């Protein structure tokens, strides 16, 4: 069940929606929203915060801002929170979604860069998905741990081997999506509501969606705890993502085979 509260309302005249999933981020979400409000972002985009059943005061903090707040009754997980945002964007008719983390790691300046990457050039040449990479920017202060580096390299290799595409930051939550992409993600069974990472990248590349990476400014987390912190969580995460990726490959192969048989007939 979902309850939508907060001071903000969809303006419906804006083509972009800033999507911020949040879970127990009362200590950092205010800094993120304060930073957004000091820029021109509220004039070019609506801001939606999806509170994923936080047990702290995240909902109360966000409700004091002029943003749209979707408050989930219970904690359903990161993937479910952002899919709820995609469904909202699809229902309200937005053209683009730009998603940020609520922990302050994503510098607000990235919003403009991602938006420009989504809309510049002729429409047929524009990317469907833009990923902000911490490994393409000298301004990024983010330094992954040794284990995180191993995970990222492992995932890079899987993407390269399966799709032939190099993605330097496959676990980045800083992304911009066009309507074609988030409308697809909104559909039942088309988005991993548990751990949507490289499995979704591989799925969309195999389906012919265009993904582009751009340099992004990112910072170290100063409060709270990452959902993938600790060796056990990282190992579990890698196993689940790998199994999900295998499932996606098999499903895509099946869909391609069915289409090929239809064409032969």
- Rounded to the nearest angstrom, the radius of gyration is 18 Å
- Supply the helix-strand structural class: alpha/beta
CATH class: Alpha Beta
β-sheet strand percentage: 15-25%
Please name the CATH architecture: Alpha-Beta Complex
Span from first to last CA? Answer: 45 Å
Going across the major beta sheet, what is the strand order? 1-4-3-2-5-7-6-8
Number of β-strand runs: 8
Short recap of the structure:
The chain is α/β, with parallel strands linked by helices and 265 residues long.
Features:
Spore Coat Polysaccharide Biosynthesis Protein SpsA, Chain A; 8 strands; alpha/beta; 9 helices; 15% strand; 265 residues; eight-stranded mixed beta sheet
How would you describe this structure to a colleague?
Helix content is 42%, strand content 15%. With 265 residues, it is an alpha/beta fold. The chain has one domain (2-264): Spore Coat Polysaccharide Biosynthesis Protein SpsA, Chain A (Alpha-Beta Complex), CATH 3.90.550.10. An eight-stranded mixed β-sheet has the order 1-4-3-2-5-7-6-8, with helices on both faces. Helix 6 runs parallel beside helix 8 (198-206). The longest helix has 34 residues, at 231-264. The radius of gyration is 18 Å and the shape is globular. The termini are far apart.
């Amino acid at each position: 069940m979902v309850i939508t509260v907060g001071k903000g309302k969809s303006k419906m005249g804006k083509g972009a929606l800033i999507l911020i999933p949040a879970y127990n981020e009362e200590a950092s979400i205010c800094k993120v929203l304060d930073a957004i409000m000091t820029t021109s972002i509220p004039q070019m985009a609506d801001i939606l915060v999806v509170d994923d059943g936080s047990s702290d005061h995240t909902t109360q903090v966000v409700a004091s801002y002029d943003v749209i707040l979707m408050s989930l009754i219970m904690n359903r997980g990161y993937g479910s929170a952002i899919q709820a945002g995609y469904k909202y964007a699809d229902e309200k008719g937005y053209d683009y979604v730009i998603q940020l983390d609520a922990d302050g790691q994503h510098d607000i300046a990235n919003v403009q860069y991602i938006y420009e990457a989504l809309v510049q050039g002729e429409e047929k040449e524009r990317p469907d998905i833009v990923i902000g990479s911490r490994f393409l920017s000298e301004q990024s202060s983010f330094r992954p741990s040794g284990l995180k580096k191993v995970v990222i390299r492992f995932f890079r290799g899987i993407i390269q081997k399966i799709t032939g595409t190099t993605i330097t930051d496959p676990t980045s939550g800083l992304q911009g999506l066009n309507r074609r992409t988030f409308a697809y993600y909104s559909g039942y069974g088309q988005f991993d509501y548990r751990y949507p990472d490289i499995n979704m990248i591989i799925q969309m590349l195999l389906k012919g969606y265009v993904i582009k990476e751009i340099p992004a400014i990112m910072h170290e987390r100063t409060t709270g705890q990452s959902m993938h912190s600790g060796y056990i969580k990282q190992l579990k995460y890698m196993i689940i993502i790998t199994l999900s990726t295998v499932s996606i490959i098999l499903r895509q192969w099946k869909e391609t085979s069915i289409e090929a048989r239809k064409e032969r007939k």
